[in-house]
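can u pls check wat happens w/ iron/sulfur cluster
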Amino acid sequence: MVPLRPLQSTIPKVPEGVEQGLYRISPPLIKKSPSGGFWAVNFAVGCLHACPFCYADYFNKEYPRRGLEGLVSREWGTYFAAPRNIGEAIDKTPWHRWRGVEVFMSTMHDPYLPQVAWIARRILKRALPSGVRLRILTRSTLILRDLDILSAYPHRVMIGVSIATMEPGLYRLIEPRAPPPHKRLLVLGEAASRGIPTWASVAPILPPNPLRPDPYKDLLEIARALSNLRVAEVHGESLHPRGDNLRLLAKRLGAPINIKGWDARAERIFYKAMEEYGLKAQWYR
Ligand code: SF4
């Protein structure tokens, strides 16, 4: 039996240079996501994968949680706050109210950051028996530890990973603290082998840049890898400006980002690459 961690979270260990905090989270844990009109469960402020293109920073700065205004004013990837009362919030969430409803886990951070993966497990244990349908999205491999629970509810879960590129020179810069894409793909293979439906989010698709001049070739490589893994669906999304993300991305790449006219081209080559490998594809504008 996995030992239970205390219900009150303590300050988690974070990478050097990251300022951390605690905040009070109000139940229910399932809320409409600030990044879209769908239901989502979020349980951290900040994401230590520190992808410079991320949209979450914009929402954290635009709608700061009370008491975290100073913390979230720092640069993306250098702040992180965990809920101090997560046990209470899990207990007070009427999970059954979302029976049969698809809930996204998560939209404002990776649910399987090492600092909060234990919370994700607690949530699975309450949400899934209550009938909630969870669409999980992660760049982490820690979800593998929860396949024991997830495989008991294959009709209520979809395990997804995000892949922005397969180009090593690029992913090391734009997903600096996440496991490399080929390890995330292993998550999909392992989940499928346990009978759990899987999906992938190919996002964000960046315009051509010196590290990856041919995005279509990159997309073909992603599609080929996904087609071998029996993913049920693939979502695609272009790069959009949100807050400071384009400046951070350009700084990381050491090159300007030109998104003019890119959305339409990205959509076209995304569908073309996915069709090439017979994948069910959906574009998000
Ligand atoms: S893993 Fe997702 S939430 Fe975390 S920084 Fe990257 S894009 Fe943002």
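The mean pLDDT is 94.
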